[in-house]
Specification:
The protein has helices spanning 2-27, 29-34, 38-47, 49-76, 78-85, 242-257, 270-273, 343-348; strands spanning 103-107, 117-121, 124-129, 137-142, 151-155, 165-170, 179-183, 188-196, 200-208, 216-224, 230-231, 234-235, 262-266, 279-285, 288-294, 296-298, 304-306, 339-340, 356-362, 367-375, 381-386, 392-397, 402-407. Strand 6 (165-170) and strand 7 form a beta hairpin. The N and C termini lie far apart (84 Å). The protein is an alpha+beta fold and 410 residues long. The longest helix is centred in the N-terminal third of the chain and has 28 residues, at 49-76. Keywords: Membrane, Transmembrane, Transmembrane helix.
């Protein structure tokens, strides 16, 4: 009601002003054109009051519903009235800070490239400009494998073998589907990316394609390594992604079955879950297959949750105090052929296994295979993998992340 009163009052005032202009044109052309400007209109009202008072009366009549509407608005929403009167709505809306620090110079298909999002997931490095389903411009580089830690990669135009595939795609203003071009070799690529907590990689990026592609990019990039988002150091459960739903489901199953040994076999996408209907969930809980029908929805805080979830939190894991032990006795190197290494021995005497070909399997089931080069300053195992004609990839693994370490050669 208050909005209608305010709008009605403003319309009456505008109609009164227009009436004054019409009356001014009836008096004379100069007064008519001059009254298009409010100061001249005020002068006309003062000089020709008897003629202009009809329009002034209509404008004054509009003040009544305007004042009543503002009074009603102030009685139940004073903050909104203050915002209207302060004219803050006339100022341009401040843009939120960018999520990722991406600063690239150069050109993409002959045009500027300013990506707002970037990720390295499933071995595919993607930089996108635009937020629609089809990006305005997008660069994808398909790597041989998803890096587990730091990544350093160098490709030269004369390199051969299995190289990363580069794909450019762009959307023309008059097109519904993007155009794309792929390149398998003959380009220059340099990546030097380092992990950044909690789920990012950042570092140097350089790409130069043949001249007919009109693409040369160089600068600093920051990439997500999964589709989780964090807020104040915690996972943002309101973010719409399959990884968010998987995290919510694992937490729910752990609390429901009182077991931390949970792995999802089949989980719905967040788009399917947005319809708030029962969905089939398949999981392994403590080695036992479980098939459930669950409904995912957003709660009052706009966070994803399982409908009817009232299970208590799991008790905290007991802290394990490792007894101080003497360094293990030197042992002979295990025979090659997928022999399991003692991780503690590798930490104590890393030089004994330097430059040996090893394979590390993480607790998440990922595999890092390459030459063991030692421990870094934080005690992480460094495994370097040479890529055919494409430089090398470095894996930095914490001992707690490794489920199995195998020696592949002496």
């Amino acid at each position: 009601m208050d909005a209608l009163l305010i709008l009605g009052g403003l319309l009456l005032m505008v109609a009164g002003y227009i009436w004054v202009i019409v009356l001014a044109f009836g008096t004379g052309l100069l007064w008519g054109y001059g009254s298009l400007f409010p100061p001249v209109a005020l002068a006309y009202i003062g000089v020709h009051w008897r003629t202009a008072r009809k329009g002034v009366g209509l404008a004054a009549l509009g003040c009544i519903p305007l004042v009543v509407g503002l009074a009603l608005l102030a009685s139940h929403d004073a903050a909104r009235l203050e915002a209207i009167l302060s004219l803050r709505w006339l100022k341009p809306e401040a843009r939120p800070p960018a999520e990722l620090a991406i600063a690239l110079s150069g050109e993409f298909n002959g045009k500027p490239f300013a990506p707002q999002s970037g990720e390295l997931i499933g071995g595919v490095l993607s930089l996108r400009q635009g937020h629609d389903f089809y990006a305005q411009r997008e660069l994808q580089i398909r790597l041989p494998a998803q890096p587990l830690g730091a990544l350093r990669l160098d490709v030269l135009p004369e390199d051969g073998g299995a190289l990363p595939e580069v794909e450019l795609s762009w959307l023309q203003p008059d097109q519904d589907l993007p155009e794309a071009r792929r390149l398998l070799r003959g380009y220059t690529l340099h990546l030097d990316l380092r992990p950044k907590a909690p789920n990012r990689l950042e570092g140097e990026f350089h790409l130069s394609l043949p001249s007919d592609y009109r693409t040369t990019l160089s600068g600093h990039v920051e990439l997500y390594t999964d589709r989780l988002r964090y807020r104040h150091g915690k996972v943002d459960l309101g973010y719409d992604s399959d990884d968010t739903l998987a995290l919510v489901l694992r937490d729910y199953l752990q609390r429901r079955f009182a077991s931390r040994d949970v792995s999802l076999v089949r989980a719905p996408s967040w788009r399917a879950a947005s319809h708030a209907r029962p969905l089939r969930i398949e999981a392994l809980v403590a080695g036992q297959a479980q098939v459930l029908e669950l409904t995912l929805e957003k709660n009052a805080r706009r966070e994803w949750t399982v409908r009817g979830d009232a299970f208590p939190a799991l008790p905290a894991e007991p802290a394990t105090v490792a007894a101080a032990a003497a360094p293990p006795e030197p042992q002979a190197l295990p025979a090659p052929g997928n022999a399991t290494l003692d991780l503690e021995l590798v930490q104590v005497e890393p030089q004994r296994y330097s430059q040996r070909l090893v394979k590390a399997t993480t607790v998440r089931g990922r595999i890092a295979e390459g030459r063991f080069t030692g421990l870094d300053s934080e005690g992480r195992l460094v495994i370097r993998r040479e890529m055919p004609g494409a430089g090398e990839a470095s894996y930095l693994l914490r001992p707690a992340e490794i489920a199995r370490l195998e020696l592949l050669e002496r």
